[in-house]
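Fill in residues.
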């Protein structure tokens, strides 16, 4: 560290967190190195928000792992519309609605998984498939529908997708809003009996899935536990984690708290 930088006594805590603490100071300001690091992190977060999903690439990767796919698009025509009009990202365009209506199977699937760009397409490309492969190992006997790849999607788009496919549960793997230390964080949202109009209080969320956060096996184990518990209880959301009547053969991984979508 340069002699011109006055160290912060809390610097030792940085080994426990990526948060910007213990940066020190140079005169009346931050050290130049920390100012530049902040600028880089801000640029990475902005890039993540504006990056577009590459559905062809996801289809190839999913197909190579043995998963059938369907592609849909929200009513937001492009990224600019998606960012300006969150409501459009919560509803399908007419083509996607017709495609899913025609793909409804009998009997309907127990669960449908959606890969959605959200606010970080790079999170989906980096983490969604490994999580899906892991959780599939915990779902023996479940009827899983095709993986739906949804462009310009908000969390609530999964409600319409799951409803049209007749699924009992919809699982959204979606890019979370980038932070200044995590431009590629994946969120997982679970909704029982999805249909338009579901509220965030009726979902469960597993957050910060990435290599530096919640690892794939832990995220998949937590998701599988919630899916089994949701099917037994017939619900998700705030009542699921507090419901005393739920009887399960396993417990969530210690230290990983599931909450409600925001």
């Amino acid at each position: 560290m340069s002699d011109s930088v006055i160290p912060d006594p809390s610097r030792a805590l940085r080994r426990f967190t990526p948060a910007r603490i213990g940066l020190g100071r140079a005169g009346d300001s931050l050290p130049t190195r920390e100012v530049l690091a902040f600028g880089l992190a801000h640029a990475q977060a902005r890039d993540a928000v504006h990056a577009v999903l590459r559905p062809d690439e996801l289809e190839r990767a999913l197909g190579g792992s043995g998963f059938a796919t369907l592609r849909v698009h929200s009513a937001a025509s492009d990224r600019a519309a998606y960012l300006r009009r969150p409501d459009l990202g919560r509803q399908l365009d007419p083509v996607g609605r017709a495609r899913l209506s025609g793909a409804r199977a009998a009997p309907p699937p127990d669960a449908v998984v959606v890969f959605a760009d959200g606010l970080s397409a790079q999170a989906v490309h980096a983490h969604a498939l490994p999580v899906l492969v892991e959780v599939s190992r915990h779902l023996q006997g479940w009827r899983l529908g095709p993986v739906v790849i949804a462009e310009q999607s908000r969390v609530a788009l999964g409600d319409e997708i799951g409803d049209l496919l007749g699924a009992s549960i919809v699982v959204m793997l979606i890019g979370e809003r980038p932070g200044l230390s995590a431009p590629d964080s994946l969120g997982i949202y679970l909704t029982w009996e999805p249909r338009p109009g579901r509220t965030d209080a009726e979902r469960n969320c597993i957050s910060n899935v990435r290599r530096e956060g919640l690892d794939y096996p832990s995220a998949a184990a937590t998701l599988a536990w919630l899916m089994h518990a949701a099917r037994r209880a017939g619900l998700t959301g705030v009542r699921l984690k507090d419901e005393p009547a739920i009887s399960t053969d396993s417990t969530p991984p210690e230290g990983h708290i599931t909450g409600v979508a925001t």
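The chain has a mean pLDDT of 88.
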